[in-house]
Amino acid sequence: MTDFPPPSLALDATTLLSHSAWLAKFARALVANEADIDDVVQQTLATALARPPRHTGNLRGWLGTVAKNVVRSSARSDTARAAREVALPPPPPVESPVEAVARAELRRKVVECVLALDEPYRSTVILRFFEEQEVRAIARLTQTGEDTVRTRLRRGVLRVRELLERRVDEETRGTAHEGVAARALLLSRLRDIAASADRPSIAGGGGAHGSSAVSRGFGRTAAVQTTRRVLVGAAVVAATGVGWWWWETSDRASRSTEAASSRRDPPSVAPATREPIESAPAAAAERATAPAPAPALPPAKPDIVKLGTIRGVVTDPDGKPITGAHVWAISTASQKSNGTTPEFAQLAKKELDREATGHGLDNWIGTLSGEGGRYEITGLPTLPGWEIGAFDGGIGSVVTDVQSIRRGREEITVDLKLARGVNLHGNSVDESGAPLGNARITVFRTYRGVESPLNLMSGAYGARLGHYEAGFVCGDSLEAECTAPGFVGSPRSRIEIRPDASDVALDFTLKRRPGSVVRGRIVDPSGAPLKLEALLQKRFAAVSPISRVARVSVRAIPSTSSSVAEAGVDAMEEGSVLGRVDFVQGMYDVVLDHGFRGTLELRIERAVVGSAPLTDLEHPPDLPCDAERIPKEAASTRFALRFVDAESREAIDLGTQPYPPQLTEGSWIQSSTMPDDDLRHGIAHYGCKPGNVRVRVIISPDFAAGLYPIVVPEAEPKEPITLEVPRARAGIRGTVLHADGRPFARSFVSVYRVTPGGLIDASAMNLATNDDGEFQFNSLAQGEHVVVASGTPDEAPGVLRVVAEAPFTPVEIHTVAGQATRFRILAEASSEDSPVTQYRIEDGDGVVVDDPHRNWSTSSGTFDELSATLRSGRYVLVVERRGYRARRLEFDVPAGDTMTVALEPLEPRSK
User: Fold this and answer.
1) Which residues contact 604 (CB under 8 A, 6 or more apart)?
2) pLDDT tops 50 at residue 729
3) Does domain 637-725 have CATH number 3.30.1490?
4) What's 129's DSSP letter?
5) Ordered alpha helix ranges (H), 143-243
6) What is the pLDDT of residue 439?
7) How many CB atoms lie within 10 A of CB 494?
8) In terms of C-beta density within 10 A (0-12 exposed, 13-18 middle, 19 or more buried), how is residue 714 classed?
9) For residue 199, is pLDDT > 90?
10) What 8-state DSSP symbol labels residue 383?
11) Long-range contacts: 449-452, Cβ < 8 Å, 24+?
12) What pLDDT does residue 590 have?
């Protein structure tokens, strides 16, 4: 008997019962029968009392996990009990040796016909009928949509029927009835197989005693299971000879089962106790043929979508194994890390919150570490790279570099040692203890010698005034400091993390800087009090409260500096002093040295919207705010997007997504959740500057991914803007090769859909080839596409036109030798503090042929130097920099000398 260590946390019944209402609501989403809800709640609470968690930082999240395990355990128990209660059918009539041989021969023919199918139908049929995988699981393993899987199954089993009938025709050709009687006999025998293949006597199980006896030897158990799978699979597939209705009926039942199970077990979470999924089609085919070896068949065309396993051990910072840690395999199509361990810590906490609501991210495949800290995640495709992350709210987190599963190396061992972490929050106050809004808190996270700061702001108004939330932070060491205009900043404070502590409160008390405190009202142009918060909410409706506050600043500019009030743009003049805004009182304050003389300026979105002379520090002036002086291009338009199916014109349900689609205008814009959002009917709200933007659509495998262009009007439209998204019915799979034929690893690949209105970027995300040069696009609309594979400094990109069809169109792209082409981007200073440059190179057909995934940031603000390798021809360089006018430059390759492109700022500075 195993002795378990005493729990480190005791939970009383009162604490648990306070969560019973929430737990009942959560259980309602897990079970289909209302009568089961009370049972789930009671069992969950009983488990929590018997085996409490190590920490209560996220008690509801932990209770949700326990509830899921209760539902899974109950489902397994119900299934086992039902199997025991079913009485064994009467033994079948004793067959003669001739009849037994005939039945075995028929089963062999069915298996041979299945193995004779072309890919991907062969592996799909084997996984569904021989391996007994559900449609949802097959879709996840093969990275395709469920509709695609069902289509493959339908076509595959019909093809099996054709092959069977063809064999009968060939064997009976020339007889009196040309095979009619033989086909009738075939149908009769298929019905017999379908009725008897799953009997315990045939499958090798003879009740409880028989199962125990078989389980004594692994080899015999495997043989019995393999025999059963072959018989059942052959019977189910062969039953299509009786009629397609048979499979359709069973598939509808399986869809209902999947719909119910999806509520119980979100697809992004894999229980730690699950059995490994043996999902390689080749291995499945080998098991299927074990009882009756098929004759040698021509080798099938290799399928580049191999499947692999990543396993390892999770330990704490001291090397002690951790049981129950959350572990994820996170796919990264770009073959690059999404972030560092400190950044992952906060993402992992958010992912657990999403999983509790059933909205986990699809590319996070999770499990829990088991005994000895061991974990295993199976069925991982080799095409994307994989980051492995682990999280424990009472200890810490960690994420690895990208792991590549190469062919011939389908199993990888990755051990995970957590860095210490904690949930950090607190308050900023002044010397009197009053909440201090607009304070900047910086958390310094040092991990493996690299320091990464996390900048936060304390709440500026409302219930969160002076409060900050850093979320879950981790690292080898953690420090924090707080600063605010007019106050002496706090020194760095080391954050001490106690063992098993999941929560730390760190408060800051700031003292006024020596000098005169100048404090006055913020008013409108007429002198009446102004509610600045309401003005910002109106002008920047779709922006978060913290972002609104960050757009406002107060500065005192000495008379010795040249004021930029006339220019109306932002700058930090020599000798100027930064103040702060008290949004609660509608006041400004700034601390100045005695004898200061100059001008006060209020700036919103880097534009001066009001100023007042400051000649007497004892009598501060009112500071006016003229909303009309806020730059129009800075104000965002709030609008709604309605996402509809391009075929049916029906709304697409966004309620099941972790978040609605994003916009991009050089930077990503998240949908701002509004009370009038109707995600279930495809409506989400956004806010951004008027003009051309693109919508990044990755809704589900059923719809084509891509960047869809829309035009944002200057005024908020009364009706939502409708975006029609085509169905995903095709894919492209292939290999990128160097000019000399070697596999091209880490080559960026893009795909564009050809439409009457031009090219649409159908990539939707950065994608790069794996170490074997392979890539795959899953969610594409049918039709003509252009695939572009980036080259190297010595090779030009490969461009290929292809028609995408279902399920996948195979392609091979070669890069070619090219000419080095250089550009210099010159730019005058603009109002942008840190401008970001984006560029693209288009060929004569408008296809983007050079790295659209890369951004350049300039620290000097004067010039950038770029280079690209291109094959001979005519091209266009498009340069876009925030705060500047876009430029297009036509050029020929070879180009010779470096080409210069001069950019003009949108708002030139006055001299």
Assistant:
1) 536, 551, 552, 625, 630, 634
2) yes
3) no
4) I
5) 146-172, 180-196, 200-203, 207-214, 218-238
6) 94
7) 10
8) exposed
9) no
10) S
11) 450/340, 452/340, 452/342, 452/343
12) 95
Using CA atoms, how far apart are residues 236 and 536, in angstroms rounded to an integer?
65
Compute the distance between CA of residue 316 and CA of residue 350 in angstroms, rounded to an integer. 21
- CB count within 10 Å of CB 103 equals 17
What is the dotted CATH code of the domain comprising 307-417?
2.60.40.10
Enter the DSSP assignment of 362.
T
CATH number of 730-817: 2.60.40.1120
Q: Name the architecture of domain 819-903.
A: Sandwich (2.60)
Superfamily of domain 420-512: Carboxypeptidase-like, regulatory domain (2.60.40.1120)
Between CA 573 and CA 767 the distance in angstroms is 44
What percent of the chain has pLDDT above 70?
Answer: 73
Interhelix angle 281-288/218-238, nearest 10 degrees: 90
Task: Give me the sheet containing 587-592, strands edge to edge.
Answer: 580-582, 587-592, 516-523, 623-624
Residue pointed to by tokens 């994003």: 662
On average, the pLDDT of the chain sits at 77
| DSSP-derived pairing of the beta strands 419-429 and 508-509 | parallel
Domain boundaries, the chain: 13-83, 97-288, 307-417, 420-512, 522-629, 637-725, 730-817, 819-903
pLDDT tens digits, one per residue of 133-192: 888 888 878 777 777 787 788 778 777 877 777 777 666 655 544 444 455 555 555 545
Identity of residue 412: I
What per-residue confidence (pLDDT) applies to 827? 79
- What confidence tier does 624 reach under pLDDT thresholds 50, 70, 90? very high
- b/e for 851-871, b at 16 or more Cβ within 10 A? bbeeeeebeebeebebebbbb
811 by DSSP, 3-state: which?
A: strand
pTM above 0.85, yes or no: no
Instruction: Please list, residue by residue across 506-524, b when 16 or more beta carbons sit within 10 angstroms of its beta carbon and e when fewer do.
Output: bebebeebeeeebebbbbb
Cα distance between residue 716 and residue 638, in whole Å: 6
Query: What Rg do the C-alpha atoms of the chain give, in angstroms?
Result: 33
What are phi and psi for residue 160, nearest 5 degrees? -60, -45
Same CATH topology for 13-83 and 819-903: the answer is no
Please name the fold of domain 13-83.
Answer: Rna Polymerase Sigma Factor; Chain: A (1.10.1740)
Amino acid 81: pLDDT: 63
Higher-confidence residue: 865 or 81? 865
Q: Is pLDDT of 211 > 50?
A: no
Q: What is the pLDDT of residues 344-370, one digit of tens each?
A: 998 998 888 877 776 777 788 889 999
What pLDDT, on the 0 to 100 scale, is given for residue 276? 33
595 pLDDT more than 80: yes
Residue 81 burial (C-beta neighbours within 10 Å; 0-12, 13-18, 19+)? exposed
Supply φ then ψ for residue 201, to 5 degrees.
Answer: -65, -35
What is the average pLDDT across 858-886?
78
Distance CA 801, CA 663 (A): 28
Pairing type for strands 873-881 and 598-604 reads: unpaired
In this structure, are residues 479 and 494 in contact, taking their beta carbons and an 8 Å threshold? yes
